[in-house]
Amino acid sequence: MTRSTMLFAGSSHPELAKDVASSLGVDLGKVLIESFPDGEIGVQILENVRGKDAFVLQSPARRPNHYLMELFILVDALKRASARSIVAVIPYFAYARQDRKEKGRVPITARLVANLLEKAGATRVLTMDLHTEQVQGFFDIPVDHLHARLLFVKALKEKKLKDAVVVSPDVGSNKMARKFAEDLKLDLAIVDKRRVNGRSVEVNAIIGDVKGKQVILVDDICSTGGTLETAAKICKQEGAKSVFAVVTHALLMGSSKLKGIDQLFITDSVPASRQAKELQVVTIAPLLAKAIENVTADKSISSLFK
């Protein structure tokens, strides 16, 4: 990075922030973040940022309301301290699942988050594996959309799986799963899922052949694990030999046990909520660092995925 570039971080994911700084060969910018007795957030930038290009890393998982507000305040502080540009680095974009009106009298919260981020002073957003790509259209500033797919593909190839098939756990993940299948040169199957409510899933059928095969489930977010558990169950009922799963954003809320999944590949886009032998973490820190370098040098971001 150039001398005019600085990297700051909120309090959501200090481990990832340190790893990105290490990959860039820089120190994190000094910032004071405190909580007042009534719950309000206080921020002070402790370094001169006048005329600087500031990057702010914040991954608002598990406490989205708190961490998003902290991000808005950080961005506002940098703007008022006369930073030349402010790039919000948001590996996990909270509220991306609320991207449209599926019924009457509901908000489009993803658009609201975009509006608030722009109003705070962000001049660019760097994010990863959005739940729906159209969220990029909610912004009037540039959005660089990163993908963890090639990192997962490398990890999966090292497993040397035989007779494998990529399975989309629902129709919504079909596009992402299809790209995995193309990169791995494997067939694709789809679980036809009907969601009853936010926690319950009803499965009708699986489209494709999984009998005697090693299944690779692909999804962008795992919250309670219901979708993956249900997909794993039906795959094994249809004769799958084993089930692996690939998830970019592993929230793993509550007591999700991911029954039926032999190994789960995740990134460190959000802080780990647990340690288990069946979890394999693929770090995104070098990819984020390279993307930051490319933004700073006015180089292509899409070239990172070719």
Structure description:
With 306 residues, the chain is α/β, with parallel strands linked by helices. The protein is globular and about 60 Å long. It folds into 2 domains: 164 residues, Rossmann fold, CATH 3.40.50.2020; 134 residues, Rossmann fold (3-Layer(aba) Sandwich). Helices cover 28% and strands 27% of the residues. It has a 7-stranded mixed sheet, with helices on both faces. A 5-stranded parallel sheet has the order 1-4-5-6-7, sandwiched between helices. A two-stranded antiparallel sheet has the order 2-3.
Large-scale geometry: globular
Number of domains: 2
Order the strands across the largest sheet as they lie in space. 10-9-8-11-12-13-14
The radius of gyration over CA amounts to: 20 Å
What is the count of β-strands? Answer: 14
CATH class category label of the largest domain = Alpha Beta
Q: What composes the largest sheet?
A: 7 strands, mixed
Distance between the termini: 23 Å
Order of helices and strands: EHEEEHEHEEHEHEEEHEEEH
Strand content: 25-35%
pLDDT averaged over residues: 95
Could you name the CATH topology of the largest domain? Rossmann fold
